[in-house]
Design goal:
single chain, about 575 residues, alpha+beta, Beta-lactamase, Lipocalin, 3 domains, eight-stranded antiparallel beta barrel, about 20% helix, about 30% strand
């Protein structure tokens, strides 16, 4: 059956091309049902000729049934997004890196259970086995190098990074977030190291290995790695972020890849997804291993495989991953039992790729999905008799591992988390010891001692203990002032007191006001949580910076006089 593809060129308006006999990689095409295409258009209606936008692709039963673009690929030159527009796929890229490692494993050239230091001796010895498998499942404990550099004042997209930089940064890290295999924390570092391992073991540049072993066999003719951001890529969409007066370019100007950096089209992503149903790359064992959810050291499972989330969506098995790099957003999902795939790629930072992909999937899955019960607000806070015991739960809580803060507020009889929007931070009491989010997708439970448990990533549970908010005096703040140095991040932080505020300065021109949290802990917008460390005698000897993917980056206090005004 023929396929209708909507595409664009630099010099023309939309051209509709009737392509006979299907696609180049064996994914034969067909027209999407006439009743569905207008509904797909409605999903992307916000993207117009004056905005960036997205592309969407759908395959069903091994056939591409829809490829279409919306909005502009290049706002400066009025180039439209089309079916063959190339976007960056962000962390959707990770499954390809995992596949490259797995191909070498299937050939006996390495094992997923090999120590990483066997191939990357630059990695420090942390005293516990850190395996390739740990890196591919985000259970390595490796700090995310991008967040380390953000703490240093050079976040990603602010300077050019290469794999040599990644190795240099990793070589300086004296500790992990946790013992490998005991917890889960998303880390790009592991996937960059995996790409380096592929190059060292295969003897080929990582990008060349993937081209020859994955992209070409699958007919992914528009796909490559952004291993040189200065390279001209015909048909690539420029990425944008929204500003007050319009859009601004927001491109990933770095050569680091493997964690992200895949340049591709929706059609090529569908061809990759079809490989799991009709494999041309890898054997059945290869496919099984890549899609097998991992287990922690204690045997407890989690829902991340090798670069893929294995979950359910509206009662159906779903294999998926999202992506976000600079101004690009992406989502690739597959419903293996229904043999349906959806790919969405956007060149706008506010493009809700995951939401769009699920909205389109709903259309093509039709009556196969289990209707989600409508979220009812019948059990809203104002319908519940708030007991004194419930009221006592309001307050500040400290993460027992990282020191990060969660605050429960009681405002006009309603409970909410500090920060976020009402849709995401409203808490509904279910009992004196348990609260849930408004849509019932998260729970917050207190034990008999008042310790708070909150579900976190991949089946892990974070615990929080009650702490009293701090109101430090000027004298107490002055005792914290001084110079703090991190060799791991190669940065110096200067703590100064101005009036009644403690502030942090960082070269060349950063100056942030610290907001007190609990004793010796402060929040610094854009930097994270800062926790001052004391010795046995109570003297301040250093501090830790805590972020989502860097749990305890230590700074040593330099001897000197307190500074202030």
């Amino acid at each position: 059956m023929a396929r209708i593809r909507v595409t664009c060129s630099v010099f023309s308006a939309l051209i509709v091309v009737l392509v006979l006999c299907g696609g180049p990689a064996g994914l034969q095409g067909q027209t999407t049902p006439a009743s569905l295409e207008p509904k797909v258009d409605a999903v992307f209606a916000t993207w117009t000729a004056s905005t960036p936008g997205c592309a969407v692709g759908v395959s069903s039963g091994g056939r591409i049934v829809l490829e279409k673009g919306y909005g502009e690929a290049d706002l400066e030159h009025d180039v439209r997004n089309g079916a063959e527009t190339i976007f960056e796929a962000g962390s959707v890229s990770k499954q390809f890196t995992a596949a490259a490692v797995l191909l070498l494993a299937r050939e006996g050239k390495l094992s997923l259970d090999d120590p990483v230091r066997k191939y990357i001796p630059e990695l420090p010895d942390y005293g516990k086995p850190l395996l390739i498998r740990h890196m591919l499942t985000h259970t390595s404990g490796l700090r995310d190098w991008g967040e380390v550099e953000a703490i240093a004042g050079w976040p990603r997209t602010s300077r050019v990074y290469t794999h040599a930089h990644v190795l240099d940064i990793v070589s300086r890290q004296k500790a992990l977030n946790f013992e490998p295999g005991t917890n889960w924390s998303y880390s790009n570092t592991g996937y960059n190291l995996a790409a380096i391992i592929v190059a060292r073991v295969s003897g080929q540049p990582f990008a060349e290995f993937c081209r020859a072993r994955i992209f070409e066999p699958l007919g992914m003719t528009h796909t490559s790695w952004r291993d040189d951001f200065t390279r001209i890529v015909k048909g690539r969409a420029i990425a944008y972020s929204q500003a007050r007066d319009g859009y601004r370019q927001n491109m990933p100007f770095e050569n680091v890849h493997g964690n992200g950096g895949l340049l591709t089209t929706v059609g090529d992503l569908l061809r990759w997804n079809e490989n799991f149903a009709a494999p041309k790359v890898g054997d059945q064992e290869f496919l099984r291993i890549e899609q097998e959810p991992g287990r922690f050291n204690d045997g407890k499972p989690y829902d991340y495989a090798l670069g893929l989330y294995i979950r359910t969506y509206k009662g159906l098995r779903e294999v998926s991953h999202s992506g976000s790099t600079a101004g690009y957003r992406a989502y690739l999902t597959r419903y293996p039992d229904q043999h349906i795939s959806v790919a969405v790629l956007c060149n706008a930072a506010n493009g809700a790729a995951e939401r769009y992909a699920h909205a389109v999937a709903d259309l093509y899955l039709g009556d196969k999905i289990t209707p989600t019960p409508a979220t009812t607000n019948a059990i809203a806070n104002d319908d519940i008799l708030v007991t004194d015991r419930m009221k006592s739960r309001a307050g500040m809580y400290r993460n027992t591992v990282t020191g990060a803060v969660l605050t429960i507020l009681l405002d006009k009889g309603q409970f909410r988390l500090d920060g976020g929007t009402p849709a995401t931070n409203t808490l509904v009491p279910e009992s004196d010891s348990r609260f849930s989010s408004l849509n019932r997708d998260r729970w917050f439970e207190f034990d008999a001692k008042g310790t708070l448990s909150v579900p976190a990533a991949n089946g892990t549970v974070e615990t929080y203990e009650r702490v009293e908010p701090a109101h430090p005096t000027a004298e107490q703040l002055m005792a914290l002032s001084g110079t703090y140095v991190s060799d791991e991040a190669e940065v110096t932080l200067q703590m100064i007191v101005e009036g009644t505020d403690l502030k942090v300065t960082r070269r060349p021109d950063t100056k942030l006001t610290l907001r007190p949290l609990y004793k010796d802990a402060f929040a610094a917008q854009g930097l994270g949580v800062i926790i001052f460390r004391r010795d046995a005698q109570g003297a301040v000897v250093g501090l830790s910076v805590v972020q989502d993917r860097v749990w305890d980056l230590r700074f040593t206090r330099q001897v000197g006089k307190p500074t202030g005004t």
